[in-house]
Amino acid sequence: MKDCTIDVEPKGGAARVVRLAGTVDAYTFPRLEFALQELLRGGDTQVVLVCQGLEYISSAGLGTLIGFARRAREKRGDLRLAQIPPRIFQIIDLLGFSQVLEIYDSPDLALASFGATGPRPAEISPDDRKP
Amino acid sequence: MTESHSPGPAVSTSPPLILLRIPGDHFYQGAIRRLVADAAHRAGFPSDAAAAIAMAVDEACANVVEHGYGGVPQPLRSPPPAIELQVEDHADRLVVSICDSASPYRLPAAHAELQLPGLSRPAPGEAESIRERGMGLLIIRRVMDEVQLAPLPAGGNCLRLTKYKAPAPALAGARPPGAAVQPETP
């Protein structure tokens, strides 16, 4: 089992690229939470999370992603996921988050999506009752 | 998925495949996942199904540490609280029991818990956290076929998670072990 690694790439455009790999569980998720909090504090609300090397994510890690996406959207930003391994996608889909989070095949497509003006997935709000 | 609150701990006549006492500390969750996934795979579940069972157990143990034991790292508590993990490989099912010494609790109603993921605002005092809560039990309920909670005679709780190796007769549409994890049909 690999440890959790989080690489925040230098800012190259409007959106920030973060590469998440290894295991995100109840023990390691505070690192992810801290990294995303730092981005918010620095004003980065458009974030692409590249998950190619992600081996496991528990509810604590998924909760961190959902929480960041909601707060980013409140500031007209968003969290968009790229290169989700099939087993991780199954969990995201199991919880209904594939209807809430935008997921792309590649980081480039996810980055380009921030320039698009298409419809956004379901809003994350207290009134939303989708599981 | 069926669920019950039993008046007492479930009794098994089958010897456990694994009986383990683990410190109630998030640090050990990776080891628990590997152990349960290997045991489930050995019991006949394909790797995807075994991984899903391990995730359900991971979530159950995380809940014990965070909610039952207050999330305090094990080295700071004396005596250290423990989790007792038992895996039973029956002919038709795998049963994983997660027993703790925490105060008695009840499982929230399924319909209430379904509304939680990603949708709740931070509680007072949690303004600095960007984490959402309430998904662990949802994962457990969707992955496992049966969830039973019982108090232990000497104090504590025992959460008993069952996954059938073939579709359970009483559960219409139950998933076979090899099936991918999918959302329940509303």
Explain this structure:
The complex is a heterodimer of chains A (131) and B (186). Residues 126-131 of chain A have low confidence and may be disordered. Chain A has helices at 29-41, 59-74, 86-94, 107-113; strands at residues 5-8, 16-24, 46-57, 78-82, 102-104. Chain A is globular and about 30 Å long. The relative contact order of chain A is 0.16. Chain A is an alpha/beta fold and 131 residues long. Chain A has a five-stranded mixed sheet. Chain B is 26% helix and 22% strand. The two termini of chain B are 13 Å apart. Chain B has a domain at 2-110 and 144-164: 2-Layer Sandwich (Heat Shock Protein 90). Classes of the chains: A alpha/beta (131), B alpha+beta (186). The interface between A and B is large, with 37 and 39 residues.
The major pleated sheet of chain A works out as: 5 strands, mixed
- Quick check: average pLDDT of chain B? 78
Report the structural category of chain B. alpha+beta
The poorly predicted ranges of chain A are 126-131
Radius of gyration of chain B: 16 Å
CATH class descriptor of the domain at 2-110 and 144-164 in chain B:
Alpha Beta
Secondary structure tally: strands of chain B: 6
Shape of chain B: globular
The succession of helices and strands of chain B, N to C, reads EEHHEEHHEE
Write the layout of secondary structure elements.
The complex is a heterodimer of chains A (131) and B (186).
Chain A: E1 5-8, E2 16-24, H1 29-41, E3 46-57, H2 59-74, E4 78-82, H3 86-94, E5 102-104, H4 107-113
Parallel strand pairs in A: 2-3, 3-4, 4-5
Antiparallel strand pairs in A: 1-2
Helix pairs in contact in A: 1-2
Chain B: E1 2-5, E2 18-23, H1 29-42, H2 47-68, E3 82-89, E4 93-100, H3 110-113, H4 136-143, E5 146-151, E6 157-164
Parallel strand pairs in B: 1-5
Antiparallel strand pairs in B: 2-3, 3-4, 4-6, 5-6
